[in-house]
């Protein structure tokens, strides 16, 4: 079916609109695409290395049978009080060893380095090193979290699920489908709702020092239901799982007196009509089977769901009804692209 067949006597510039019937094949293709892009492979491929000491870390160094080296502040003091701070220049001072450049070392590498230096003064030194305070190696958080305090990278590998659990998502305000993880200057977009419904993938994403997490707010996450429905409205939603059936249901359903069941459209705008046409997804809602398709077709932010009236309606009238929403469509399309 072409755009000129939307209703008898309509005229439209076909170069700006692509009409796509909602079919089982279309839904299957959308699902396959969503699954393929649910988690960027680069994130799943990353495996954390052994912890490397950084500036600001506090280290507790034990030399067995030598309490004067282990606890210079006295054994009655807390462990932290006997910790040795890694300076901002990455160095650490230790008696009989001197100043060592320790940033970038693993705990095992530092233990061996201290043991070798002490061997000139202590017979067969038994040295142990542990981190009692973590400094500058952190994951930064911004956006719709209850707690946005930076979270430290520790000797225990840190996962995305752990960070989100500690930060606590503001479920009333968060756009769960728009999480952005920035690593080494590259942005990775994640749909938290899809991750959670797809098993334990979120727990398998390890974070590294310097990662940034931004969870956008959902104040621009809207779809618009207009035309011959009981309650035309803007619908705010938090996840990517807003189906066409849900959108129509929240608007009270099709108006039984004036709606044309064959004329149910989802208009998906683009940023620049000169570069790519807008897509108009069409659904013939006159049969029960159509609502099974509608339940699996996902509405996206910025979409306009339009239900046409019964009888002959010109395509030009359709666009005139959409005119007040054109600015909203463009803004939502741009916002969705930015996220």
Automatic annotation (TrEMBL):
It is a multi-pass membrane protein. Residues 47-131 form the Polysaccharide export protein N-terminal domain. One of its GO terms (biological process) is monoatomic ion transport. Keywords: Cell outer membrane, Ion transport, Lipoprotein, Membrane, Palmitate, Polysaccharide transport, Porin, Signal, Sugar transport, Transmembrane, Transmembrane beta strand, Transport. The keyword Acyltransferase does not apply. GO terms for molecular function: polysaccharide transmembrane transporter activity; porin activity. GO terms for cellular component: cell outer membrane; pore complex. Gene3D superfamilies: Outer membrane lipoprotein wza domain like (3.10.560.10), wza like domain (3.30.1950.10). It is found in: Cell outer membrane. Residues 137-213, 221-307 form the SLBB domain. The keyword Metal-binding does not apply. Belongs to the BexD/CtrA/VexA family. This is Polysaccharide export protein.
């Amino acid at each position: 079916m072409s755009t000129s067949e939307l209703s008898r006597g309509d005229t439209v510039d076909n170069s700006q609109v692509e009409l796509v019937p909602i079919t089982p094949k279309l839904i299957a293709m959308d699902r396959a695409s969503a699954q393929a892009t649910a988690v960027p492979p680069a994130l799943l491929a990353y495996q954390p290395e052994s912890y490397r000491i950084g500036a600001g870390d506090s280290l507790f160094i034990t030399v067995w049978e030598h309490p004067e080296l282990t606890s210079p502040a006295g054994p009655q003091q807390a462990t932290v009080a006997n910790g040795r701070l890694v300076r901002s220049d990455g160095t650490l001072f230790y008696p009989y060893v001197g100043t060592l450049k320790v940033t970038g070392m693993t705990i095992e590498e530092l233990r061996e380095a201290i043991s070798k230096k002490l061997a000139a003064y202590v017979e067969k030194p038994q040295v142990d090193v542990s981190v009692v305070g973590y400094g500058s190696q952190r994951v930064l958080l911004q956006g719709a979290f209850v707690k946005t305090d930076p979270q430290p990278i520790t000797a225990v590998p840190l996962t995305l699920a752990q960070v989100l659990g500690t930060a606590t998502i503001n479920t009333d305000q968060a756009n769960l489908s728009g999480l952005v993880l920035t690593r080494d200057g590259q942005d990775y977009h994640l749909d938290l709702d899809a991750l959670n419904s797809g098993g334990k993938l979120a727990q398998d994403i390890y974070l590294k020092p310097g990662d940034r997490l931004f969870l956008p707010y959902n104040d621009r996450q809207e779809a618009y239901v207009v035309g011959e429905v009981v309650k035309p409205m803007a619908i705010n939603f938090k996840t990517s799982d807003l189906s066409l059936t849900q959108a129509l249901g929240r608007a009270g359903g099709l108006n039984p007196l004036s709606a044309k069941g064959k004329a149910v459209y989802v208009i998906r705008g683009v940023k620049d009509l000169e570069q790519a046409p807008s897509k108009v997804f069409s659904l013939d809602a006159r049969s029960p089977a159509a609502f099974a398709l509608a339940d699996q077709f996902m509405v996206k932010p910025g979409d306009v769901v339009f239900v046409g009236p019964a009888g002959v309606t010109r395509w030009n009238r359709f666009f005139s009804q959409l005119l007040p929403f054109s600015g909203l469509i463009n803004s939502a399309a741009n916002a969705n692209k930015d996220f």
